[in-house]
Amino acid sequence: MEKQNLKTVNKNENKLKGWLLDENLVVVQIVFLKLFTLIYITAFTSVFVQIPGLFGKDGLLPVSNFLKKTQKNLGPTQYNAYPTIFWLSSEINSFIIKIFPSLREFEAEENVFHLICLVNITLGLCILLDFQLRFFFKFWAFFVMWASYLSIFLVGQSFLSFDWDLLILETGFLAMFFVPNQRNGHFYIDQITVVARELLRWLMFRFMFANGVVKLLSGDKTWWSLTALHYHFENQPLPSPYSRYWHFFPDAIKQFGVANILVVEIFLPILFYSPLRSLRIFSAIYQIPFQILLLSTGNWNWLDFHTIILCLPLLDDRFLKTYTPKIFAKILGIEQFLKTSATEQEEVGKSKSKARSYLETLLSIGVLIGLFAIYFPYDPLQGGFKINFDMAYLRNTLINSYPLLACVGLAVLFTFFNLFRYNIKSVPFKTAAASKVLKLIFSVGFFCLVFFMSLPPFFSGIEAKPDLLPVFSSSLHGLSTKIKSFHIVNQYGLFRHMTGVEGRSELIIQGSYDQVDWMDYEFIYKPGDLNRRCKFNTPHQPRLDWQMWFAALGEINREPWLVNMMGRLFSNSPSVSNLLEKNPFEEKPPQYLRIMRYKYTFAPLEVSQEWKILDPKGEEYFWSVNRTDPALVNYIKGYSSQKITEQSMYPVHPWQKIPILSIVFTAVITIFLMNMIKSRGKK
Q1: In whole angstroms, what is the distance from residue 228 CA to residue 258 CA?
Q2: Which domain holds residue 619?
Q3: pLDDT digit string (tens) for 425-460?
Q4: How many CB atoms lie within 10 A of CB 640?
Q5: How far apart are CA 632 and CA 191, in angstroms?
Q6: Per-residue pLDDT tens for 184-214?
Q7: Total of domains in the chain
Q8: In a shared domain, residues 473 and 536
């Protein structure tokens, strides 16, 4: 009898042990942070090569002018509104010019901007080079990268105002607290790690759900009729070489594609909080091929990679140790961590029968098929798919009722549930009770602060009623406003309206000596020449090309940087010319400039020409203007200290001669090869 009771106790202990092991996160942390470091490296590198033309003294939106205006308008509150290291530019620059005297002729802000990017690119590479994860794989390193990106974001104005910049800041803030702890050669999770993981899950939910919901809340007919992809491929900011082929896919397939987008962005995120582990993992894994597919349809810089990385906190070590491809593990140098606790993982594996695994897979596929069948059924009469709900259902059921309420409640429940699991799970050393209690108090406070601060911008963005927390509503708004400048939590909602239903609006800047013969300025990536194929620029973001797309959707009075660009082109600014593929007036700047707006559309596949123009005459977006035009000269004075001259004498910053793209690419590939060689050596 005693033996039987002992067996029962041991069996229960093994079940408890397996239950605890299900949610180990060390491998998830390491993979997530290594990949997110690549995002940081990409972002800083991408900005670095554009600094002189966008933010330098001879650029389109000089940082020095922005800081002077901000200081004048805000006075003593400037530091609270813009907590950026650029307020210390003069002090930092004094050290820079001591080491590099040749940089004395350049503005302090331009020197500091270059230094920030170079330091953080180097730091990111050092993190990847830290094979033992002992020195650079720390809180301080991720704090430096986050604070640095915040600094450049706050002075980047129109050119650093995208949702993916905000996403880097919010992810980067949480990543600091997601760094695994080490002691005596062991990696382990603690309470703050658990909280950071749940806040990353909540971030992924908010980002995806908001992106999907705003598309329908806008009332845009193309989203509601599932025809958005009929126009998207040719009207996205920077089409890829394959966008033209996607554009001519059958309408039914494109309709299904829109339905898939809405399922992925609205309905699958709800499963992030499913009580079933298999559904949680499926909802995360399904995002990966979806994001990879997006990579082939357009140029979205690093956004798709970032979204894939945000799926990782939804997984656990058991999943990664089972399914991570060996080649991927070798490249990242994580094979040793996949082998850690292999015995325990095998014990957990034994408790899962094959039959159960098959049932869980069938359940996940069944849920996905069910979502399509219920909400986006195929209509044989129309010969395509349709949305099987209306705006009232979207607002009253999906947003302001149980689905969203459940996710908010489960986000809190998951956090405290996993904190409980941690507190009864052993760590590789003894922890003082007082220390454990203090960490727990800090972790709970940290979660409550970030989580509840995220609710006002989230609810506002999706037009949800703020009745979930009526007691805290006003105080939450106040607190969220106070720390808004740090962008710890943000509002998201990409591409709520489908533009270009009547053709793609494209701006063409033209110059002339006599107002008779006009020659076009060509950009590196955006469409212009009708015969030129679209290019891949992923993961780089050419920010001027992107802003030209936004400018084409409105009027020039909303784009002061574009007026300043006219002045820089009149002066043949080398810094701005470097952002272009072709300057037809390199030897002598033009006497006149104008901007024309045309309607572009993809040419049929059977012709070699990439684009055709729907309105050959076009319309004047910015009238023909002379370099001495008083209105132009006075307007530019408000945005730049540089005057319109015959030839700009302000040189391109010498650090731009650093072949940073080649260095970073070579360094990253070398690090990955070193990881693979080390992996083979250990065998």
Answers
A1: 7
A2: 504-652
A3: 655 556 667 777 888 899 999 999 999 899 889 998
A4: 24
A5: 58
A6: 777 888 899 999 999 999 999 999 999 999 9
A7: 2
A8: no
